[in-house]
Amino acid sequence: MLYLSQVLGGPIFDSRGERIASVNDVLVRYGDDDHPPVIGLVARFRRRNFFIPQRNIADFGESGARMSSAKLNLTPFERREGEVLLGRDVLDKQLIDVDGKRVVRVNDVQLIEAGNEWRISGADISFQGFLRRLLPKGFYGYDKPVEVIDWADVGYLATDTATATVQLKSSSDKLSRLHPVEIAQLAESLSPIHRTEVVESLDNEIAADTLEEMSTEAQARILQEMDEERAADILEEMSPDDAVDVLEEMDDDKAQELFNLMEDEERADVAELMAFDNDTAGGLMTTEFVTVPRKLSVGETITRLREMAETPNMIYYLYIVEEEGSWKLCGLISLRSLILADPEKQIEEVMRTEFRFAHPSDPAEKVAQTISEYNLLALPVVDDEGDIAGIVTVDDAMEILLARDLTSRLPRLFG
What we know:
MgtE N-terminal fold; 39% helix
């Protein structure tokens, strides 16, 4: 086992034992391996960097490297796609530790010999790793404790090179093991450009869920920096109300461009919400909800839910309408009550006919207060004709109430 700091700057000898160059960097190839292999050394001789492939290296360790051949190819080194320089691209960079759910700094890189090759085994994030690089070998105690992250748990490496895209492809599955809230929190610890790369590495659905956990300003900045087609795909996966918020945060030309790229159905949902002012129930609601006709049985309703190709992320209630294809709201039922009801009964027999609702023009704060006072998980928004136009969910209401509560406390906090 070696650390990168122990070999950088070390001598390189030819097969006869004569020093011919020094180790400028160690090159690895990213792919599907959890522990990427070392494919060679970048050697330096008289201000020239050239490449020595792993197959031409007989020995490699703290004392340097020894070649198995006396022949050298002094062609200037050029990085190829998928290649990462450990010294330049990894040392002192931030990475996401998926297992520890944290962003950490790489102070040294641990290498391990496996068969006839060397591989990255981990990232030393301890202060001892930093000292190992600074102090001469005789002054550093190798028995001091270190903290090394298994490279298999590296979900993202904040490198500043074009190879970031390559390594992200191999690590996006690791990031996807985390909850979108956790991914968002970790991404916000990184620089804006790396935050965008993290979101880009995720599939559209997880990327949308992650963006929804960020501020509207961060959402807009990330989507504006992405490829337009990909940004539009992610917008389609977002809740319509969240998509409206982020489009309104962008400059008009960019927002119109992304809006036009959205699929017809999702674009129609977003356009419907854009007609309402932000500080009204209409501007606060989402059009993602489930309706069922009142003449269905409980069992038929449950079967229909199971067979739906797409359902809202959070189904708090089912909204009962007069007939198939109608939007005329006549009742609602919670998911819990539906599951516990007799499957043979008609849905109209178990639904609630008395319930709170809002009008699209009602002030957003009034809607939030209603949700809070009546301990609701969602509130239907009903227009003048009695049709359900959307619902306001408890998370959106809490954002309003928490912001108001903080504002009311500011005079006492700073007065």
